[in-house]
Design brief:
Blueprint (H helix, E strand, L loop, with lengths): L7 H10 L6 H11 L14 H10 L6 E7 L5 E6 L5 E9 L2 E5 L3 E3 L8 H5 L1 E4 L2 H13 L7 E4 L9 H12 L11 E5 L5 H6 L6 E5 L5 H7 L8 H15 L3 E7 L7 H11 L4 E7 L13 H11 L6 E3 L25
Parallel strand pairs: 4-7, 7-8, 8-9, 9-10, 10-11, 11-12
Antiparallel strand pairs: 1-2, 2-3, 3-4, 5-6
Helix pairs in contact: 1-2, 5-6, 10-11
């Protein structure tokens, strides 16, 4: 049993029903694993020796080996973690005082093939288990003396395509008996897949939602985000409005500007119209080059023209500075090509 993957309720049920331990042992065990982040049951000094020996026989605490770290000029650090099956995933630690943000992966590769994204180009290999998602965060936290304040599920993979593992990871990360990063400090990013946002809005926590839109023109979006063929813009917009209504939280529309593709005045007008009646903010980012992809970055004159075309029609528009692009750690760059294979 990989106890790192168990939510508090699951852990309590398991130790009482399967191991015969007292219910209060669940909080002790959960705190040791998720707050103190120990890697051995024998470090749990307030749990009896016999219970520790039993736990050691039938279960394990997941930790990931870091096989590489690269630091960018702006202080962003990319970590490569090796999994038990020798698969390698990447996570990113982004300092932006007073915030320290962990960017976490949910899959090895991605099945949705966004044409500007390195992870999608590398294809899908497998979902990550809950304990592998959690262990990334703890690996990042253990590498710094500063407390991680925010978590974004914007690494390799489509989080809502691996919903059961994501759901449990969200529960564990936001549990106040563990590392306790509040739901409002956690953001889930999605390209928009059928039923995905509906599942997320059914969870109790007020998790942030970011949508990789990249175009509000159907034909352009289908070129950039192929999965949009099965979730057209009008259906995506319905899901977003439902999320805002049910959660009472403003969502984020992520828009990667690519020269000659989605940076025209017509594209800006379509984006303004799409966002008009959604409680949202728009994050513009400039395309980060991916090896072997013919897309180019627009110049700053074009970027500024696009941005100002959105005003004052849109509630909030920001130009997001890409972090870690010099080490292939920015949006759309994660994956094996940075190591010699291919991914996000």
């Amino acid at each position: 049993m990989k106890v790192t993957a168990l939510t508090f309720g699951e852990l309590k049920k398991w130790i009482t029903e399967e191991l015969g331990m007292k219910p209060y042992g669940a909080q002790q065990l959960f705190t040791w694993i998720h707050l103190r982040r120990v890697t051995s049951f024998h470090q749990m000094t307030d749990i009896s020796l016999s219970a520790r020996n039993r736990l050691d026989q039938v279960s394990e605490i997941t930790s990931l080996d870091t096989c590489d770290t690269i630091t960018a000029d702006d202080g962003t650090v990319k970590y490569s973690f090796k999994l038990d099956d020798d698969e390698v995933i990447e996570s990113v630690l982004i300092p932006d005082p007073p915030r320290l943000t962990a960017c976490i992966s949910t899959q090895a590769g991605c099945r949705f093939g966004c044409t500007f994204c390195q992870t999608g180009r590398g294809g899908f290999r497998r979902d990550l288990a809950t304990d592998e998602i959690i262990a990334q965060l703890y690996g990042l936290q253990n590498s710094t003396d500063d407390r991680i304040s925010n978590v974004v599920f914007m690494g390799m993979g489509e989080p809502l395509d691996n919903f059961p593992a994501l759901r449990d990871a969200l529960s564990i990360i936001s549990d106040d008996r563990g590392i306790c990063i509040g739901a409002r400090k956690i953001t889930v990013s999605t390209v928009g897949i059928p039923g995905g946002i509906e599942k997320l809005m059914q969870l109790d926590g007020q998790y942030g939602l970011a949508v990789s839109l990249h175009s509000a023109v159907e034909s352009t979006r289908r070129k950039l985000v192929p999965v949009s063929r099965i979730l057209p813009l009008r259906e995506l917009k319905r899901d977003l409005m439902d999320y805002v209504s049910r959660k009472g939280r403003r969502i984020t529309l992520e828009y990667c500007l690519i020269a000659g593709i989605n940076d025209s005045a017509e594209e800006a007008d379509a984006l303004a119209e799409f966002a008009d009646d959604i409680e949202c903010k728009i994050n513009l980012l400039v395309y980060n080059p991916v090896e072997g992809v013919p897309y180019k970055r627009p110049n700053m004159e074009t970027v500024n023209r696009f941005m100002h075309r959105l005003y004052p029609r849109c509630q909030a528009v920001t130009l997001r500075r890409s972090r870690g692009s010099d080490i292939a750690a920015a949006c759309g760059q994660l994956g094996p090509a940075a190591r010699g294979t291919s991914s996000n």
